[in-house]
Amino acid sequence: MADRSGPGGGAYPAQHRELAAEIAGRLPGPDGAPRTWDLVYCSRSGAPGQSWLEPDVNDHLRDLAAQGVAAVVLAPIGFVSDHMEVLHDIDTDCGGHGA
Description:
Layout (H helix, E strand, L loop, with lengths): L10 H15 L31 H10 L17 H9 L7
């Protein structure tokens, strides 16, 4: 569905990448260097055997922790207001990855 979103296709992930780049651009890194960022997804719905948007936030956090990344900023841009599912995903599921 993400590949077919929007008039030309791919609008859903493209809009999320654009917003993520904007957010990262407003958070200067050390010595003013641009922050690196990644677009990841949470809130899987449907049957576990059904494909879903990737990379999964929990898998990505585990990978970053294994690389020695000490801290991350998560910005749930897919929901523009508080949402209990996102609260659970970020506060509960993402809390134990060491990153």
